[in-house]
Amino acid sequence: MPFQPTAPSPRDWETLESDLQFSNPHVQVYLARLRTPSRPDGVSWTIVHRKAAAIIAPMTPDGLLLLVRQERVPIRAAIWEFPAGQIDSPTEHDDAAIRAVARRELREETGYELLPSGELIALGTYFSSPGFTDEHGYIFLARGVVPSAAGPSHDENEVIHECRPFTPADIRRMIAENEIRDANTLSAFARLTALGLI
Asked: 126 and 161: one domain?
């Protein structure tokens, strides 16, 4: 299967050839040759394709933000982060499917859900590490979350030690002190701040 970009390419970008080097249900690694605006003869690049994710900044009615402390095997640590989850829908750009993932991950990872009067506000997208992967995330503010009667329902592959509310000032301090280090949370907090939502 040849490498396909996650979004339509401009005319002056073209995949000339691609060779799948490795694949599993989570990632595909391609050695590709692409024509770019500054490289009309093409350039070889190793590209890692990974499913997109929904990242949720859950906010309680009194303005606190929920973080989960999740065990992350590759870095051998449990870290504080906003809840997030991969989008498995084949129609990855379908807004309803992306929002459904955001709501599901909110409930599964935190045990909270939106109030009937709550809002799931799309804050845009970001790329986690565009030098080698097309992985990207859809950021949401879930404003008006309360504990769900069902509680959390963690995926069998994840270990979440706790979920706690923090003030925006707490999170700002945790970022400054390098306690929060993951791209999802840093990007979502930056977007919330830039948009004046916190």
From this structure: yes
Return the DSSP state at 56.
E
DSSP assignment letter at 105: H
Of 106, 109, 173, the closest CA to residue 142 belongs to: 106
Condensed to tens digits (0 to 9), the pLDDT of residues 48-101 reads 999 999 999 999 999 999 999 999 999 999 999 999 999 986 655 689 999 999
Domain count across the chain:
2
**CATH number of the domain to which 188 belongs:** 3.90.79.10
19 with 71, same domain: the answer is no
* pTM (predicted TM-score): 0.89
Distances (CA, A) of 71 to 78, 141, 177, 192: 4, 23, 19, 25
Contact 67, 171 (CB under 8 A): yes
Task: Report the Cα 64 to chain-centroid distance in Å.
Answer: 20
E strands within the chain?
14-23, 27-36, 39-50, 53-59, 65-72, 77-81, 84-86, 112-127, 136-147, 160-166
**In this structure, which amino acid lies at residue 53?**
A
Q: 27 and 79: one domain?
A: no
Q: Which residues contact 65 (CB under 8 A, 6 or more apart)?
A: 57, 58, 59, 82, 165, 166, 167, 168, 171, 198
CA distance 194 to 124: 12
Residue type, 103: R
Which DSSP letter does residue 174 get? H
